[in-house]
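pipeline/complex-builder :: batch 7 item 3
reading input block
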Amino acid sequence: MVCGLSGTVLVGNLERSARRAARWLVERTPVRGIRDWGIKFSLWPVHFTTACCGAEFAAASAPRFDAERFGFLPFVGPRQCNLMLIEGTLTRKMAEAAVWVYEQMPEPKFVMSMGACAIDGGIFWNSYNIVRPKDILPVEVFVPGCPPRPEAVARSIIMLQKRIERGESVGLRV
Amino acid sequence: MASGSEVGEVAAPIEGALSGISSELSVRGEVVSIRVRPEDLREAAERLLRLGFDHVKAVTAIDRPGEGIIEVVYHASSYGNPGLTGIIAELRTSVPRDDPRVPTLTEIWPSALYQEREQWEMLGVIFEGHPELERLLLPEDFGGPPPLRKDFKIPTEGINA
Amino acid sequence: MSGAGSGERTLELLIGPQHPASGHMRLVAEVDGDVVVRLRPDIGYVHRTVEKIAETKTYLQTIPLIERPPLADTANHNLGYVMAVERLLGVEAPPRAQWLRTLLAEMNRIHSHLYGLGIHGIMLGSSTAFMWAFGDREIMIEMAKRLTGARITYSYMIPGGVRRDLPPGFAEEMEKALRYLERRLPDYDRIFFSNPVTRARLEGVGVLTREDAIRLGVVGPNLRASGVAYDVRRARPYAAYPELDFQVVTRSEGDSMARMLVRVGEIRESIRMIRQILARMPDGPILAERYAKMIPPKWRDYVRETGRIKFPAILASLRPPKGAEAVSRVEAARGEAVFYLVSDGGPRPYRMRMVTPSLRNVVLFSHLTRGCRVADIPAIYGSLDYFPPEADR
């Protein structure tokens, strides 16, 4: 693509350059801080229940623990979500679906995994039908417990927020 | 708690209903255990249904490689007949391990539909005449022997590993 | 949405496994316009091979394992499994342990039913029902935590008894909790069950006739909503149920609304039962004499003072007789759970068969949705209180 701008002629792909410039800009200090602060309080986990930890995950979103006060509200479709929470064991059949759902999510996207099973199999470590989430997805925060208490889920959300704030979790795949 | 004598009372009509079929009857707690040959399975189930055992609680196959057989066990009981609700009729048969074929009982007890399918998948027992003998729980690409057979090994922990 | 179905008119619609209606399963619906011609549940997304793993664990280690699939309803399955083990071993729990087991089973039934109610609320788009039910569920979970130390995975019943005795002041706290729940239930009626939107979506939807319910071997509230008064607690009473006064809640309509209302009725019955249990619980040991005498002497004072059992070593290597078999059934919150254990004389089960209520209710998906509208699928799904991990095991 060639375009002229007040006498100068620029050669190259303008769209690509604009994208790169935008990325350069959002990585600069003031913009980046504002961006990360914004992401921190708008974590939308996709409604994707992989196993029994979903019961405690639901309790974390319910009145007593109320994860919504951290800006954390389960939402229906992967297209509008930026956080994937692996709720417990990932079976082989479910792992396939998990990757599909993850790929449909827009960036920046984060993955948390909940429960001992999602770390290294937990009580089902010797099952022939499970997958370790860390093998197939870039997991940022692991929540131990079988099942983890809702407080632990709440704490892990705060941990992820801190990581986002410090710039350790960018949630972007280049 | 219902006493053993109550189960004994029910065992008698079951024995009567199964006359003509070579079967072994034994009573264990609330369970009346009936062992039949595979070819008599359908007939025995039909007679139990007529007696009032209207649903299947569990279909279980047990792999016994030492004896070269697979046992197929149906636990049936009754919802409709108040005299039978406290009793479980355990209908069991054994088939050779290398060619495990039993007639399906889904026409007699539709409640066995999913569990027969599961046992087919997990132990490779072929329920002949079953309307949809296809994968239920395992992923489509699952390979290897049926997982609940004893020769399907999974890692174990501790010193016995 | 994908692909074409069998004919030109129909379309195959894939719902799940990621869908708003909280489920780890896929429904493959063949639709003609808006009408479901055929629906096939594709389960197995949470198949974690519990039956196989049980063969590599000792009888005691299997207790936490069987609690994982029915996570919202652990106590009842725990009880069913322990009853089967006790039958293999020929042990019987002392009376106080039986009453404590019944207490926890009923508490679990209340919070499991509230869980079902809340999830059904989400499926109908009623966030209020979810928030209320999950909030009130925490009351029972908190009480169970005081009794057992865990929120939902109690592992409270062990072969021969229970792990802990009642903590001091439990009955008074429980009375407060029950009064609160009783006060709340009419609120649910007002805002949810007599709500015209709820009624329009649930009444007459997914009707299950009595004959079909029996023929398909349906269990639990789904069966009782179709007018079959079958309840294991009545048909073959176990634990302390023979001595308790309770009604088997049934309804005759068999629709989604009836299934929900049976659950609410059961919460009321459970509240009554918990009151009776706390008023009439007998005194005595909480572990069978056979195992209690094997607790090391240095721990006996601790056990007496705190009411918490220190496990004797024998529990780690229970060996039932060779060839022994046991069947047990309990009325879990979602319906009847059946355990079938086969022993080969070793310390591990030779075969453990676990038939959970959800597994037996799977058949309803294809049966009830035939001819219904696509929008009715969540209303029917929710009313079955189906919990996929429980069905897949």
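note: The beta strands of chain A are 2-5, 8-11, 83-87, 90-91, 110-114, 130-131, 141-143.
queue -> next item
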